[in-house]
Amino acid sequence: MAKFAVIKEHIYQKIESGEWPEYHPVSSENELSAEFNVSRMTARRALQELSDEGLVTRTRGSGTFVAPLKSQSALLTIRNIADEIKMRNHKHHAVVRSLQSVPALPHIAAALQLDPEGHVFHSVITHFENGQAVQVEERFVNPLLVPNYLEQDFTEHTPHEYLCEVTPLTEASHLIEAVMPTKQTAKWLDMHEVEPCLQIQRRTWCRDGVVSQATLTHPGSRFRLGGHMTFKSTQRSSRGAAKGSTTGDEQ
């Protein structure tokens, strides 16, 4: 195991065991360097990756602390919520509220590109992180593309995990907005009805058509979206530009 990974595992264990609760100070880069006989750069990498994963928070001049339990999802990628929770070294479990075939309402039929007089599969699931509700997932699924959806045990694997296995996704769209929860959603998320939620509307496609339309609702105080983007510059370096000009003159 790489040295930075050893440091991460050490901190994981401190947090998971409860020895380091929320807001507990984490050893500094210098302290970790001395304890594990590594360079400060290696210690910094371990702490930065833990920060990126949402396990610790880092503040210049104050130090590093165990982060409060607050779920984070990637903004520009589609990931399995169970995997995201496990990446934070936390425990995931799910409660299935509903799993049935229902008449396709006009807007759902349109979203799934189905006959408005037909039926669709419908599931509602609450996802938990370390025993705390972090997401209500309501999903309408195209029965023509996923005929065995209702036969699945979604306490053992998530709908996203199953759908990716049987109908590999090729495209997705997102709509993100702040909303107030319904009375039922607030109850399932164990939150006050006056507390705002962050809601993601997500539609996914495979090569054969629209697979599902999902509404993912999170308590605003316990969830955040994050992302990292890398941009490829279209500008040439000054040296490259000069070389190009010279070549052009020669021609």
Automatic annotation (TrEMBL):
For the HTH gntR-type domain, which residue ranges apply? Answer: 1-69
What PANTHER family does UniProt report for this protein, alphabetically?
A: MANNOSYL-D-GLYCERATE TRANSPORT/METABOLISM SYSTEM REPRESSOR MNGR-RELATED, TRANSCRIPTIONAL REGULATOR PHNF-RELATED
InterPro entries in UniProt:
Bact_HTH_transcr_reg, Chorismate_lyase_/UTRA_dom_sf, DeoR_HTH, His_ut_repres, Tscrpt_reg_HTH_GntR, UTRA, WH-like_DNA-bd_sf, WH_DNA-bd_sf
Q: Does the keyword Nucleotidyltransferase apply?
A: no
Q: Which SUPFAM superfamilies match?
A: Chorismate lyase-like (SSF64288), Winged helix' DNA-binding domain (SSF46785)
Residues in a coiled coil are: none
Protein name as it appears in the record = Histidine utilization repressor
The protein's UniProt keywords, in alphabetical order, are: DNA-binding, Transcription, Transcription regulation
What lineage is on file?
Bacteria, Pseudomonadati, Pseudomonadota, Gammaproteobacteria, Alteromonadales
One GO BP annotation is: negative regulation of DNA-templated transcription
Molecular function GO labels: DNA binding; DNA-binding transcription factor activity
Region annotated Disordered, chain positions: 222-251
Q: Which domain of life is it from?
A: Bacteria
Q: What NCBIfam families does this protein's entry cite?
A: his_ut_repres
Composition bias (Polar residues) maps to 231-251
Gene name of the encoded protein: hutC
